[in-house]
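Severity: low
Component: inverse-folding endpoint
Summary: output formatting inconsistent between runs
Steps to reproduce: submit the following structure tokens with default settings.
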């Protein structure tokens, strides 16, 4: 069987004509390419397990290029959560805002970590995730996809007509009329834009775990009081009840010591899955999360903000608030703060506890 590459374009939530045009141009530009199958699905993050779009994705067995309006990490691990698994395909394209400086080699300390991904059994096929926000020119994506097609040497199995071959005219028509079907309206997570619409129940909001960073420390399960997380038969963390997550709440992403929890639609790039922060929290979190207590160091501010956000959600849910120490890890601050005397840290932690938010 000849090698084939499947390209999936995941539509944005936005009716922005520029975005829609880019999607159309990529699809149209690849229609004539032999060896490349193109298909379109609604916005990945909103797809449920039973949706047609997810069934379509589940049927793809060979190498996959997944184009979406998400950071590649967010797309990859959202796919993984739905059982769409594979090895990470390395693209030559950058994601939104990515620079060469983000591609740091892991430190010895990072290498020594026991990551969940090391015990995952991933199929050998590759999944390349391309960020549609990074370039305006569809040719750039088409060229990269053709390069990947040459690199790809796996075979696909025969699948339904929806997946194999190029889109039929009616599929293309459905794609172009997506707004009418309620597939896309609203905003994507471009910084500065609205990130989600609480009035639209079709818009989902849940955490996605990056298992290439997660060490299974289980701090997130202790912290979340809404029953979102669970553990599987191998005692590995999983997002068990995603729709229990509170719309707009990103609190546990601040608590995760490995920056492994992604909210793909959050306006802050590091929470939305950008590559710029490594697992050891190289930068001062206060620059990202604000500073309720100007005297607190970065990691403490992040925990403080997380506790406050959790209390806000408890109140909105009609529940009682909890103390800032409930399920909140007490950890060593990062970087230069390691050198600070322990009694100063104790004071900071005590003052955090005393807030009783
Ligand atoms: S807190 Fe982060 S590293 Fe720890 S189990 Fe949860 S996702 Fe994994
Ligand atoms: S964001 Fe809030 S509600 Fe959602 S899983 Fe995290 S702590 Fe729980």
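Observed output (run 2 of 3):
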């Amino acid at each position: 069987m000849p090698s084939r590459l499947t390209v999936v374009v995941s539509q944005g939530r936005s009716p922005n004509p520029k975005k829609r045009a880019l999607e159309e141009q990529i699809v149209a530009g690849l229609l004539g390419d032999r060896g490349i199958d193109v298909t379109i699905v609604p916005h990945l993050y909103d797809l449920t397990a039973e949706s047609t779009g997810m069934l379509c994705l589940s049927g793809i067995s060979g190498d996959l290029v997944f184009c979406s309006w998400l950071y590649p990490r967010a797309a990859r691990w959202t796919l993984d959560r739905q059982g769409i698994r594979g090895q990470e395909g390395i693209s030559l394209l950058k994601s939104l805002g990515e620079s060469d400086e983000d591609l740091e080699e892991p430190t010895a300390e990072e290498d020594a970590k026991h990551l969940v991904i090391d015990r995952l059994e991933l199929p050998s096929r590759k999944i390349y995730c391309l960020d549609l926000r990074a370039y305006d020119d569809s040719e750039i994506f088409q060229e990269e996809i053709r390069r990947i097609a040459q690199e790809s040497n796996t075979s696909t199995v025969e699948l339904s007509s929806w997946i194999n071959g190029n889109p039929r005219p009616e599929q293309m028509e459905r794609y172009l009329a997506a707004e009418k079907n309620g597939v896309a309206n609203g905003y994507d997570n471009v910084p500065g834009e609205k990130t989600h619409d609480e009035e639209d129940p079709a818009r989902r909001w849940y955490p996605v775990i990056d298992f290439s960073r997660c060490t299974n420390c289980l701090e997130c399960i202790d912290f979340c009081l809404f029953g979102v997380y669970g553990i599987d038969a191998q005692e590995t963390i999983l997002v068990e009840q995603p729709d229990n997550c509170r719309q707009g709440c990103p609190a546990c992403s601040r608590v995760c010591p490995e920056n492994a929890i992604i909210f793909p639609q959050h306006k802050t790039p590091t929470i939305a899955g950008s590559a710029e922060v490594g697992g050891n929290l190289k930068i001062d979190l206060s620059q990202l999360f604000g500073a309720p207590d100007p005297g607190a160091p970065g990691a403490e501010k992040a925990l403080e903000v997380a506790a406050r956000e959790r209390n806000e959600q408890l109140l909105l849910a009609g529940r009682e608030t909890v103390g800032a120490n409930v399920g909140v890890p007490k950890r060593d601050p990062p970087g230069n703060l390691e050198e600070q005397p322990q009694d100063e840290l104790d004071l900071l932690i005590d003052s955090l506890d005393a807030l009783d938010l």
